[in-house]
Amino acid sequence: MHEIRIANDLSEIVLEVASNEKLSVVSRVNITFGEMVQIVPEIFDFAFREAVRGSIASEAVVNFEIIKIKLKCRECGNVFNLNGSRFACQECNSSDLEIIAGKEMFVKSIEGE
Predict the structure, then answer these.
(1) Of the candidates 10, 56, 50, which has an alpha carbon nearest to the alpha carbon of residue 33?
(2) Does a structural domain hold residue 57?
(3) Band of pLDDT at residue 1, cut at 50, 70 and 90
(4) Cα torsion for 48, 54, 55, 58, to the nearest 10°?
(5) In angstroms, rounded to a whole number, what is the distance separating the alpha carbons of residues 86 and 84?
(6) Strand 79-81's sheet: what is its strand order?
(7) Residue 85: inside a domain
(8) DSSP string covering the chain, please?
(9) 29 within some domain
(10) How many structural domains comprise the chain?
(11) Is the residue at 82 inside a domain?
(12) pLDDT tens-digit profile of 2-47?
């Protein structure tokens, strides 16, 4: 349940940015996760709600964007999205791959007044 730690860390970022921007209320938080982070949105949402309880972000709507895993073959240069759990190039079958998307985790935007 790494969602709790991630929710705590991201809630600190949200509250710090809101304070720096002099917001009195945070109405929406847009968060981006790569598939490799393996977040369960419902657990994250619950943990985030607990982390911001009693703060200016306590009523914020949380939106999730999930980025698909994208790989690049170091042998043939093929770039492709991971389908299933087979980490092999779809062109040459090499397993010498570079992950170029899908590990992200960040607050994309914060809305408020």
Answers:
(1) 10
(2) yes
(3) low
(4) 50
(5) 6
(6) 79-81, 70-73, 97-101
(7) no
(8) -THHHHHHHHHHHHHHHHHHTT-S-EEEEEEEEEGGG---HHHHHHHHHHHTTTSTTTT-EEEEEEEPPEEEETTT--EEE--TT--S-TTT----EEEEES--EEEEEEEE-
(9) yes
(10) 1
(11) no
(12) 899 999 999 999 999 999 999 999 999 999 999 999 999 899 999 9
User: The CATH number of the domain where 17 resides is what?
Assistant: 3.30.2320.50
Instruction: From residue 43, give the alpha-carbon distance in Å to each of 25, 66, 107, 113.
Output: 23, 15, 17, 27
Domain that holds residue 38: 3-68+102-112
Q: Each residue of 51-98: pLDDT tens digit?
A: 999 999 999 999 999 999 999 999 999 999 998 888 999 999 999 999
